[in-house]
């Protein structure tokens, strides 16, 4: 049991360390790469009598416009926050499935112990048949429906939460409803 507790603490510490690890390196690495790439290019060129000294070269102006550290940092912060919220959301989603599974397990135990075993304790065949019928109905209709609901929720969670978290960005094109008129216009 001590090993499990230690593993949980280590995993929690790694999750806490992962947030600044996601947030800080990328903006600073990009800043360093950008400054190394354009090192020395911001100086004005030595002019001759034909060159105007107040005119800044194009590559120096591009250097100022290409990289904005605060913009990169805020963008990375947004991605880090989305990742943390996604992790919490996925954990909560799995916890809902786990709670439904526990409810299923406890309900099946209650039906077995309080209906079937209680009815089997009597010597009357009628009470035993009624107990068996109630247990069969409860098992077939309530527990199997709960298991179907659990499978549906798991599939929904996988499709909606996992898929939307990883792949969907919502940067597509505006919806235009289908129209046969647009097909005939395209043919002309």
From TrEMBL:
<dbReference type="Pfam" id="PF01496">
    <property type="entry name" value="V_ATPase_I"/>
</dbReference>
<protein>
    <recommendedName>
        <fullName>V-type proton ATPase subunit a</fullName>
    </recommendedName>
</protein>
<comment type="function">
    <text>Essential component of the vacuolar proton pump (V-ATPase), a multimeric enzyme that catalyzes the translocation of protons across the membranes. Required for assembly and activity of the V-ATPase.</text>
</comment>
<keyword id="KW-0812">Transmembrane</keyword>
<keyword id="KW-1133">Transmembrane helix</keyword>
<dbReference type="InterPro" id="IPR002490">
    <property type="entry name" value="V-ATPase_116kDa_su"/>
</dbReference>
<keyword id="KW-0406">Ion transport</keyword>
<keyword id="KW-0813">Transport</keyword>
<dbReference type="GO" id="GO:0007035">
    <property type="term" value="P:vacuolar acidification"/>
</dbReference>
<feature type="transmembrane region" description="Helical">
    <location>
        <begin position="6"/>
        <end position="24"/>
    </location>
</feature>
<keyword id="KW-0375">Hydrogen ion transport</keyword>
<keyword id="KW-0472">Membrane</keyword>
<feature type="transmembrane region" description="Helical">
    <location>
        <begin position="125"/>
        <end position="146"/>
    </location>
</feature>
<dbReference type="GO" id="GO:0016471">
    <property type="term" value="C:vacuolar proton-transporting V-type ATPase complex"/>
</dbReference>
<dbReference type="GO" id="GO:0051117">
    <property type="term" value="F:ATPase binding"/>
</dbReference>
<dbReference type="GO" id="GO:0033179">
    <property type="term" value="C:proton-transporting V-type ATPase, V0 domain"/>
</dbReference>
<comment type="similarity">
    <text>Belongs to the V-ATPase 116 kDa subunit family.</text>
</comment>
<dbReference type="GO" id="GO:0046961">
    <property type="term" value="F:proton-transporting ATPase activity, rotational mechanism"/>
</dbReference>
């Amino acid at each position: 049991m001590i090993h499990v507790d230690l593993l949980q603490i280590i995993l929690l510490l790694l999750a806490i360390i992962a947030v600044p690890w996601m947030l800080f390196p990328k903006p600073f690495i990009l800043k360093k790469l950008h400054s190394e790439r354009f090192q020395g290019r911001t100086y004005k060129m030595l002019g001759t009598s034909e060159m105007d000294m107040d005119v800044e070269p194009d590559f120096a102006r591009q250097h100022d416009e290409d990289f904005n550290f605060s913009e990169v940092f805020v963008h990375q912060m947004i991605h880090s926050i989305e990742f943390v919220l996604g992790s919490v959301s996925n954990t909560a989603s799995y916890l809902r499935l786990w709670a439904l599974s526990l409810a299923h397990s406890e309900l099946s135990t209650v039906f077995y112990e309080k209906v079937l075993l209680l009815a089997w304790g009597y010597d009357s065949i009628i009470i035993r048949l009624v107990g068996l019928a109630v247990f069969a109905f409860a098992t077939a209709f309530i527990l199997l429906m709960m298991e179907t609901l659990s499978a549906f929720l798991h599939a929904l969670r996988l499709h909606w939460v996992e898929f939307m978290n990883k792949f969907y960005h919502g940067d597509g094109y505006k919806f235009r409803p289908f129209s046969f008129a647009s097909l005939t216009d395209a043919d002309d």
